[in-house]
Automatic annotation (TrEMBL):
<protein>
    <submittedName>
        <fullName>Nitrogen regulatory protein P-II 1</fullName>
    </submittedName>
</protein>
<dbReference type="InterPro" id="IPR017918">
    <property type="entry name" value="N-reg_PII_CS"/>
</dbReference>
<dbReference type="GO" id="GO:0005524">
    <property type="term" value="F:ATP binding"/>
</dbReference>
<dbReference type="GO" id="GO:0005829">
    <property type="term" value="C:cytosol"/>
</dbReference>
<dbReference type="InterPro" id="IPR015867">
    <property type="entry name" value="N-reg_PII/ATP_PRibTrfase_C"/>
</dbReference>
<dbReference type="Pfam" id="PF00543">
    <property type="entry name" value="P-II"/>
</dbReference>
<dbReference type="InterPro" id="IPR002187">
    <property type="entry name" value="N-reg_PII"/>
</dbReference>
<comment type="similarity">
    <text>Belongs to the P(II) protein family.</text>
</comment>
<dbReference type="GO" id="GO:0006808">
    <property type="term" value="P:regulation of nitrogen utilization"/>
</dbReference>
<feature type="modified residue" description="O-UMP-tyrosine">
    <location>
        <position position="51"/>
    </location>
</feature>
<dbReference type="InterPro" id="IPR011322">
    <property type="entry name" value="N-reg_PII-like_a/b"/>
</dbReference>
<dbReference type="GO" id="GO:0030234">
    <property type="term" value="F:enzyme regulator activity"/>
</dbReference>
<keyword id="KW-0597">Phosphoprotein</keyword>
Amino acid sequence: MKQLSAIIRPFKLDDICDALATIGIRGMTVTEVTGFEQRKGHSQIYRGHTYVSDFIARIKIEAVISDERLDDAIAAVVKEARTGKDGDGKIFVLNVSEAIRIRTGEMGDEACNPPFYGELSAS
């Protein structure tokens, strides 16, 4: 198993989530983060005052994926996240030695990919 962590532009989140769901990856953690890039110092106006911010808002997606699905997941993220401009993001892949679903006690790949029950309906 591998942990895929991707730092992406916020407006690309829905496209990437849809692409990952298409290949069967439905469970992930999404976090709002800020980052420091090579290009720094963009100006922002807050309450009438201009200030320079070195940090840029990004989204971090994390998912634990079976080795067999990893290449497809990376390809999906790259395809959907790429704009061709500076700041498109980064992908990191880490080894995961074990995963355990607390509720059921499932271990390994079974703990990472929830069963698919079809479309969720609003009740």
